[in-house]
């Protein structure tokens, strides 16, 4: 049973198709850690050009998916989250260990490394069938949402 389903995730994140890259939250320790999944399907828009005949999920989208998991973790507990955006502030030590292809289920584990009033450092690991696919340190900042 998921902790958060797609409808609940969409209540937290402003992302929508094709940029919503989190399908389900499996585990959640408020303010500390989250585990999410992304079901990778052949219908993903980016597979049309990356790469025809040999589809591979772009690494930057794997990092984006991990960042979205972190955003669910942080934004879930912010009461005025509709008035804020959670943006990238930086990515460090990104490493890609294996390709992610259609049919894979990307399991993303993200933990808070450091939290300040308007920024958070997180570390994410993405695995497929228990095998490390990617990992990165990410910095995100919270800014007022433009209306």
Count of DSSP-assigned helices: 2
CATH topology: Thiol Ester Dehydrase, Chain A
CATH architecture: Roll
User: Given the helix and strand composition, which structural class is it?
Assistant: alpha+beta
Cα separation of the termini: 36 Å
- CATH homologous superfamily title: Hotdog Thioesterase
Q: Percent of residues in helical segments?
A: 10-25%
SSE string:
HEEHEEEE
Question: If strands are numbered along the chain, what order do they take across the biggest sheet?
Answer: 1-2-4-5-6-3
Radius of gyration (Å): 15 Å
Q: Report the uncertain regions.
A: none
Main pleated-sheet profile: 6 strands, antiparallel
Integer tally of domains:
1
Average residue pLDDT = 95
Beta content comes to: 35-45%
Shape by Cα distribution: globular
How many beta-strand segments? 6
Level-1 CATH class name: Alpha Beta
Helix/strand layout:
Blueprint: H1 6-12, E1 24-29, E2 33-39, H2 59-75, E3 84-96, E4 105-115, E5 119-128, E6 131-144
Antiparallel strand pairs: 1-2, 2-4, 3-6, 4-5, 5-6
Written description of the protein model:
With 147 residues, the protein is α+β, with helices and mostly antiparallel strands. Helix content is 16%, strand content 41%. The chain has one domain: Thiol Ester Dehydrase, Chain A, CATH 3.10.129. The longest helix is centred in the middle third of the chain and has 17 residues.
């Amino acid at each position: 049973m998921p902790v958060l389903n797609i409808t609940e995730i969409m209540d937290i994140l402003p992302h929508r198709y094709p940029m919503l890259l989190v399908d389900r939250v499996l585990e959640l320790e408020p303010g500390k850690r989250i585990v999410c999944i992304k079901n990778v399907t052949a219908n993903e828009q980016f597979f049309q050009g990356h790469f025809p005949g040999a589809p591979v999920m772009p690494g930057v989208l794997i990092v984006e998916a991990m960042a979205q998991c972190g955003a669910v973790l942080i934004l879930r507990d912010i009461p005025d989250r509709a008035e804020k955006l959670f943006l990238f502030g930086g990515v460090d030590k990104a490493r890609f260990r294996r390709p992610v292809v259609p049919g894979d289920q990307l399991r993303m584990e993200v933990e808070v490394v450091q939290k300040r009033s308007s920024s958070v450092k997180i570390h994410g690991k993405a695995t497929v069938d228990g095998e490390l696919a990617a990992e990165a340190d990410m910095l995100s900042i919270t800014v007022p949402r433009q209306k």
